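User: Could you check the structure of this?
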Amino acid sequence: MRYVLRSERRLATALDLDGELNTTQRAAVQAGGGPILIIAGAGSGKTRTLTYRAARLIAEGLDPRQLLLCTFTNRAAREMVQRVQELLGVDLRPPWTGTFHHVANVALRRYGRVLGLDESYTILDSEDAKELMASCLAELGDKLKQRRYPQPRVLLHIWSTSINRCLPIVEVLRIEAPRFCELANEIEQLGERFTARKLQLNLVDYDDLLVFFRQLLVEHDEPAEALKATFRHVLVDEYQDTNKLQGEIVDLCAETHGNLTVVGDDAQSIYAFRGAHYANIIDFPRRYPSAQVFKLERNYRSVPEVLALANRSIRNNVEQFPKQLEATRPPGMTPALLPLADSAMQAEFVCQRVLELHNEEDVPLGQMAVLYRAHSQSVELQVQLTQRQIPYTVRSGLRFFEQAHIKDVVAYLRVLHNSGDVLAWQRVLKTWSGVGRKSAERVLASALDEAGGERSRPWRAGELLRKDDLTRALPSSARPAVGRLAALLGSMEREAELPQLIRQVIDGHYRAYARAAFRNADTRVEDLLQLADFAKRYESLERFLSELALVAGLAAEGIGDGEMPDDKLTLSTVHQAKGLEWRAVFVLGLAEGRFPQAIAVKTRRELEEERRLFYVAVTRAKDQLYLCHPRFEEPDRGPRRLLRLSRFVEELSHDGGPPAFERWEIVPE
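Assistant: Sure, the predicted structure tokens are below.
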């Protein structure tokens, strides 16, 4: 006999769809089964629509245990489930709701034995995975002395990219790390050794969860049929951000019942560098010819003037689902274009305008944001904000001068200025692979001796490394690296210009080190070049280092931190700002080569993603939008260079429509 335990509370099935949803949202929620694509424009109520669709399905009889709901954060899933519970008046615990990795983990705990996994397997975090890869690398022994291999974290990134983009290792290396192409076979063997070691130890990493989940769905009939039969309805949030592997998993999960609802915005697909596969969303109607397509175009966030600019910008893309965002708010301020002399004036304008909005118009600092294409574009602003004691937070990571690669290169300058700076020596020596712990200790002992003697003075670092007693004390294996470091520091001691000192560190060693040590080496080198540009305004190394120390000291004292979360101005890359909104938004660096970045406009597809990034930036603004164009840059040497206005702003004036922005004249006092 079968006995069914029902919920103690009955479902409140009378959802107020007419009162809570607009016409298109309601149509998407009430649509029947089969494949459904919901194109949700910025600020159009995407989450509300997906939540109400899940609630409607459950209210009409879908067992929550048969609902697969994939999101990109567990927080988003929890909030969605909580809202469904509130709408239906019932306690729900759907097991198949969460991130792709969470769902895969649930499946593997049930069926992993067919893959050779014990259900008690351990999930490696990123640090544990790095340690395990390092041990696999160390097993190469003498090969490590013959050739330079990527660092473990870079190897993990290469391996992960291969898995998530479904690309062979050699292709990943060609795209992301061509300097290691000749090691393609060795790196592939390392990856296989890494995978075998994990299985041996009953360990899985995040990528394994997806790989094994797909294997269950493709290669093992019994668990595949059980899983596919379970998923009567599949709902996917932020579909435009799925990678190729996730896209395949989604299609497989919906194979039996065919009820697949995906929600996303092709115009906000900006994560190709992370592996997002634009074809997943743009080709959905081709893969599913019977698909119903709904476009959510009513925007509840921004004033009409901001939306008019955004619509005219994204219209220039060819490969897209055309849409026209419609405002629900009354008219407001026309977006402003700010022609500014350079990045220093750009920072001055932002600081002044932020204070005006805060003090005169009562806009909380937490309701304002400064967005930029690359973290390096915020260096001037961060210095000025700190000096003016304007509290701010950096969403895209550490503050500029707190980043590891910035501190590494500054350490070279510190040992030049004070050859007895032991802490700086420790940092410098860590960037030389030929210098082991004992060799580093001998160099540091020599530096300590230097610090304690009367000989201590600036510009002696290279001389210290060339001391006969130190050279004799070093093992033969360390002498070549220490010799190269001594030569680099010696050449720097003959250089008078501060920006060139930084460039010498980059060109003489750090670029090669970064490529082996960091997966985003090019971005870090760009930061360092920006540091060199910033340094040109200081007439001495001593003053430059003192200024950096003071900025760091002010930050450590809490200047730059407000008393409340809303007391902080937000600084963020555009990528980190997606999904957020502020009353006032400043977009920095709108010049050719900066936004769009020169490297990102080689193909039409890359250019269109860069334009989508601009679209995401401007649609973060609710009330006020400021587009900042620094007109000149001052290279380390030579005349000032004119920076042409970004094509994304320029093209807004050439489409025959009314002005999309108001050009402000900036007049120095």
